Every structure is written in structure tokens, then in C-alpha cells.
Amino acid sequence: MEPQRGRAAAALLSESSPGRRRRDGDKARRAPEPTQQRSSWAKRLLGFEWADVSSWHRFVCLLNRPTDPASLGVFRFLFGLLMALDIPQERGLSYLDHKYLDGLEVCRFPLVNFLEPLPLDWMYLLYAVMLLGALGIMLGCCYRLSCLLFMLPYWYVFFLDKTAWNNHSYLYGLLGFQLTLMDANRYWSMDGLRDPRKRNAHVPLWNYTVLRMQIFIVYFIAGIKKLDADWVEGYSMGSLSRHWLFDPFKLVLSEEMTSLLVVHGGGLMLDLTAGYLLFFDATRPAALVFVSYFHCMNSQLFSIGMFSYTMLATSPLFCSPDWPRRLGARFPACLRRLLPSLEPPQPSEACVYEGPKHKDRGRGERGPGLRQKLGALFTVLYVLEQLFLPYSHFITQGYNNWTNGLYGYSWDMMVHSRSHQHVKITYRDGVTGELGYLNPGVFTQSRRWKDHADMLKQYATCLSRLLHNYNVSQPEIYFDIWVSINDRFQQRLFDPQVDIVRAQWSPFRHTPWLKPLLVDLSPWRAKLQEIESSLDNQTEVVFIADFPGLHLENFVSEDLGNTSLQLLKGEVVVEIVKEQRNYTLREGDKMQLPPGEYHKVHTLSPEPSCYMYVYVNTTDVALERNLTQLQELRDKVQNGTETEPLPPELQPILDGALGDAMQPDPVVQAFVRRQQQLEELQRRRNATLGERLQRFATRKYFLFRRSFLMTWISLRNLVLGRPSLEQLAREVAYANMQPEAGAVGTEGVQKEPERAEL
Question: What Pfam families would the database entry show (predicted)?
Fold first, then answer.
């Protein structure tokens, strides 16, 4: 087969550019017919003739056209490598014992309730199998078996915990499933060293088509989801533009315009166009630059594991499939021996060979068989399924909340940001009627349950079972969860008057106890931002919207001075519980709230009420004032303007040492700790590139070290039995060994914003 030069578009169904030699000969003999001109245009643009999709037979032949395996083999290697790095990190091998410790009294959130984790030692074995599968995929060793060893444990772990679901984890599972059905071990693989038939052999074109369509769907559907009004208006990721990565844009744009035009506008345009631009030769170089820059930025902005690097690894799939050979041919001859084969690929039984050029080269012409037809059928059905799933929420209505579906398969990445202001869990003994309260998140290891009705139902069912151990009979459990999505008012997500233990929930029916998102109040966001920007740095504000007939019970801490409540819309009654007095407020009214007391805000108006709390944390203000005075005193002593010796209790502000002889003043303790944090932050900012790389490598070394040591301990336990508790404690302590304090810092993570309850 002649080398593929990529003159035309390497589109989703294209192996390579059409040969120009025969076409030029035809032109010399006769002028092309109009249909031939149209066909040539389709061939140049799409890589195939319209006749190739004119019938099922022709379509099967097209999808099984022999294609160079080089690019697919490189992607297989990179994907296996990235998954091997991902398993100890985002998949959780490094902290598996914290999550699945035997006998741990914790509520879990599997996709189906009968799915349970294995005992801890067996979970480590499962992860070890998954890791071996990823390494086998990378090396192309026992390829089909390695794909199964990776894919089956991966999907089991994925379905075991809905709280860990996200789009890129779902994508990894899809790519693992696709590779299981593909011939990705036909290039740069150990299987090829053992079996000459698999060494550097053609692969069917559908292997590339499925992967290209999958990545196209990721980009394009993510762009469609970003056409949401919140994203277009710049409310989804409002604080992201403060990151240092956007500083170059802020040289010419304000922070608000950087957020609107670069973060939101740029993200929308890239997702909508990246898939198309990667398909065509003329636009692919620019697309590769932009998507690479985009994913490199994301790797620094968010804690998303290997996702950015996986997407970078998929980009070359859109190039001509023989690009690794052409790249290798540029290396010196002495280095080519270390590279994969640069020779043209050999024929494969998996492909359909047609045309005179295959006859001339002795390959014969063979029609599609059952295997080829199944490959084409799989391609069509899989692509249709992936196009349908992001919009299948009308079927799984029980998973729809304010956003549709279980987060993780809809490609609605970063479209919604939430902040939780107030979460209260109330239980009532069904026999005695006694009321009690639970700390939010008790018996859980995640915060995702607060936003999803299906998880809330699982959590309530689990709590009702566990409360029996604490002498609570037939418990009723009520949740009062206040959430703001994309800078809207804080409002209730679920009905606080419904006992969730006995509430009805079905994956195929609308959740009746879900409160609607007050989208009619969305235009208020500009006014809320204006109010917030008009306040000084010491004043805080919380915006609330509540439904008619409900009330908010709140407590004003004594630390919060000058706390007031102002009504923005509707009518409410404020009940001061201790005084047993009621105050009616109408639009524009304002009242002071007594500190150290409970109050209730009842909504009387037929439409939702809107109000805001304005308060000052007097304790924080006083502490900041004292810290400022200590900083001024320290500066005076250091520059010599303060000649009087410091009393012993203030000496730590100079040397930063908190002595054990006497209990230091709490303000002095806070000052010393803050100075140490500032010095550490400054040291990190001034660190050289070598120091940063060393810190990164040290952190990763201890993470992988713990993963492998804990896995070894568990495998030893399965084979030889568990040793004494003393020996096991010593082994775990050795696995938990960390670098010296200060050598490694906390890794920056983009976390869900949380605000303290009043």
C-alpha cells in the first residue's frame, strides 16, 4: 500500500488522502464528468466517495478498509500508561484502606443497592488486576485479556460509588471498552513480537472511526451543553478568571471581561469547533495548538487526574494514521533501531481489500464476512447510543434534579457550580416522637449526596438502619438543604417536610419531593453582585429565596455583630423564638436580629420571598486588628524604632518559636502560625523549577510507594493469612511514611465552595 500523505481531510471515515496518480492519468485521457467532479470533491474533503455509503455492502467495505495501525498503536500505549498512573491516584489505590476498611460503619452510594464492596484485601487484589490490565494494554501483551482485566474491575469500581462519578472517569471506561474490541496490538506491541501475523498488520478503518467519533462527541456535546444561558452570560465559572493562568489576558481585559470572553466564550467556541477543526487537514494544525493549550491549562486549573493528558493523547488520532512512521523516518539511522517498525503494514484478515492495486500486489479481493459486518454494525450502534445518552434524561427522570441525569455521562463539564449555605438533618423517633439532629455528612465519605435525590434516598435508608444501633426506633429523617447554583439565591433543593426514608423514589419517574429551581429569579443575579460589591471587606451578605408556606430556622452567633435581615421581594414574618414575638416585613423593610438567639423567617406571600442577611464577624475583625498591631510591633523591633524590650509572652512574634514552658497567648499563636504560612507560601512562589519538580516527584513517589506497599501487604494476607496486629500495625506505619515536614506541600485542588452557616 502506498504511503499516506494526508493531502486531503482525514475525516471520521477516512484512512488517508486519495492517490493523485490515477486521477491525473484519468484527466489526461478525458475530461471528467460532472458526477466525477462531485465525487472527487467528496473524496478530497471527506476521504471517501458518496458511492461508498450508497449501500450497506459498500458501507461495510468502507469501514473495514485497511488502515495503518501505527497511530492506533501509539494511542494504545499512551492510554495504558495513563491508566496505570491514574489507578493509584484518582481511582484511589493509594487510600483504598481509608475507603473500604473492613467493618467501617459508613453509607455507600452504588448504582444499584445490591452492589457491595469486596473485603479490603480482595479490593486490593481487584485493583492489582486492574493495574496489570492497564500495563498489559500499554505493552500490548496478551492484549485482549489485558483489556478485560482492566475494563471489568474498572466498571465494577465505577458503579460501586456514584459520588466519584465524573465525565472523564466515564470516558476512561468507554475507551477501555472500545479498545477491547479493536486490534490495537497490531503495532508496537509484545503480541506482535510473538505472533508474526499481528506484527505491523493493517487494522479496519472502523477502529479509528469509533475513537474519532467518541472524541468528537466529547467536544461537541460539551459545547452544546455550554449553550446554557448561565454559561453564555458568564455565571458558571465566575471566579476562575482570578487564576494566575489568565494574567496575560488581564493585561488587556478586565477580570470580568476575561471571565466572560476568555473563560466562558473561549471555552464555548473551543468545544463547539474542536471536533470539526481536528477532522480537516487545513484546520488541524491550528486545532492541535488550541486544544493542547486548553488541556494544559485545565491540568493546572482543576484536579482532574489524567484527563488532560488522555485528551492530549487522543488528538493525534485525527492525523494521518501513518504519522508515527513519518516521524520516525526523520530520526538518525542509529536511533531507528530503537523505534517501532517503519516498514509498510502487512495485510490482515480483519480488513476488506478491494480494487486493482490489491490484486496487483497479490492480496486478492475478498468481500466482507461476518466479522466485518459486526464491526460496521457495532460502529453505527455505538455512535448512535453515544449521541442519544446525553439526552436520554426523559427516561431516567428520577435522576433529574436541577440538572438532568447522573452527572458523568452527559458531557456537561463545568457548566454548573454550587455553594451550600445550610444543611440540616433532623430525625424523629417513630415510637416516642423524640427529635434529634445529625451532623451533615455523618457516616459518609462524600458531599455529593446533598445534590442528588437518588443519593439522598440511599443516605436516608442507610441512616435509618444505623440509627437502630443508637436506640432510635422507626426513625423518620428530614433534610433541609440550601444550595445556590451559578450565583443564584440560596434556596431549598428538597422539601424539608418529607420523610425521605418513606418517600417514593423511582429512576423512571419524577421525584415529587424535589423543589424546583427558581429560574424566574435569575435576573436578580446582576443586582446581587452589585449589592455584594458595594459592601466593605469586613461585611458579609447571604441571599435567600424561600417557598410560600415554608420557614427558615436560623441561629445568629454572638460573633456576628450588627446582623440585619432585609426583605427584597415578597412578605415574611420574622419570629424571635426566645422573645416569642413576630415582626412582619414587606419589600424594602429591614430589621436587626439579636445575637445569640434563634429566629424563624416564615414566607407569607403567595410567591417566593427573597431576603438577605448582612452581618459582620466581629471576632474576625478584632482578631485581624490584633494581628495587624503585632505585625506593626514586629516591624518596629526589627527596624530599630522600638527600643523597649518585648515582654516574654510576645517574644514568639520575633523568633517564631512557641515555647513549651508557658502557654502562649492565642492571638500570638495565631500570628506565628499565619507568619509561618506566609513564609511557606513565599518560599514556594520563589522556588526554582528544579525545586518544584523535586517537590512534585517526592509527593508522587510517596503516593505510589504507599499504593504498592499496601497492595503487597494485602496480597500477602490473602496467600499466607494475616499476621499479628502488632506486625500489621508496623507494616502499615511503614507504608504511611511521609517526607519531612515542609518538603512537600498540599496540592492545590479546585474545591466546591462552602460557606459557613449563620
Answer: HTTM, VKGC_lumenal_dom
What mean pLDDT comes out for the span 466-480? 95
pLDDT of residue 318: 96
Question: Taking the model in full, what pTM does it have?
Answer: 0.89
Location of C-alpha cell 448504582: 111
- DSSP 8-class letter at 494: B
Average pLDDT over residues 174-191: 97
Closest to 393 (Cα-Cα) out of 374, 411, 378: 411
Q: Return d(Cα 174, Cα 217) in angstroms, integer.
A: 12
121-126: long-range contacts (C-beta < 8 A, 24 or more apart)? 121/714, 121/715, 121/717, 121/718, 122/718, 123/96, 123/714, 124/93, 124/96, 124/710, 124/711, 124/714, 124/715, 125/714, 125/715, 125/718, 126/153, 126/156, 126/157
- Give the Cα separation of 305 and 340 in Å (integer): 29
The residue ranking higher by pLDDT, 669 or 180, is 180
pLDDT of residue 369: 93
Give residue for cell 460503619: 105
* CA-based nearest residue to 126, from 85, 158, 86, 154: 154
| Torsional class of 230: left (φ above 0), alpha (ψ -120 to 50), beta (otherwise) | alpha
Predicted local distance difference test score (pLDDT) of residue 662 = 58
For the record, the C-alpha cell of 523 comes out as: 435576573
If you average pLDDT over residues 166-182, what whole number do you get? 96
Complete DSSP assignment for 441-469: TTT-S-SGGGG-HHHHHHHHHHHHHHHGG
**pLDDT score recorded for residue 552:** 95
| Cβ neighbour number for residue 660 with a 10 Å cutoff | 7
For 666-722, the DSSP string reads HHHHHHHHHHHHHHHHHHHHT--HHHHHHHHHHHHHHHHHHHHHHHHHHHHHHHH--
* pLDDT tens per residue, range 404-430: 776 667 888 888 889 998 999 999 999
Asked if residue 108 has pLDDT above 50, the reply is yes
Percentage of the chain modeled with pLDDT above 90: 69
Q: Is the pLDDT of residue 297 over 80?
A: yes
Instruction: Output the pLDDT for position 684.
Output: 87
The Cα–Cα gap between 179 and 449 comes to 33
Task: Please check whether residue 481 is in contact with residue 450, taking contact to mean a CB–CB distance below 8 angstroms.
Answer: yes
> Which residue numbers are catalytic?
226
- Cβ atoms of 296 and 308 within 8 Å: the answer is yes
Q: Which residues contact 71 (CB under 8 A, 6 or more apart)?
A: 208, 316, 317, 319, 320, 321, 322, 323, 324
Total residues belonging to the chain:
758
Q: CA angle, 534 as apex, 532 and 536 as ends, to 5°?
A: 90
Cα–Cα distance, 669 to 181 (Å, whole number):
61
The owner of cell 445518552 is: 389
Other beta carbons within 10 angstroms of residue 492's beta carbon come to: 22
- Mean pLDDT check: name the lowest of 27-36, 358-367, 370-379, 602-611: 27-36
Is 478 in a helix, a strand, or coil? Answer: strand
- Phi then psi for residue 266, to 5 deg, are -65, -40
Q: Which residues are bridge partners to 95 per DSSP?
A: none
Q: Which residue blocks in 240-349 are alpha helix, DSSP H?
A: 255-257, 267-279, 284-301, 307-314, 323-328, 333-336
Q: What is the mean pLDDT of the chain?
A: 88
CA dist 699 → 53, 692, 695 (Å): 53, 11, 6
Distance spanning both ends of the chain, measured CA to CA: 73
Return d(Cα 89, Cα 82) in angstroms, integer: 11
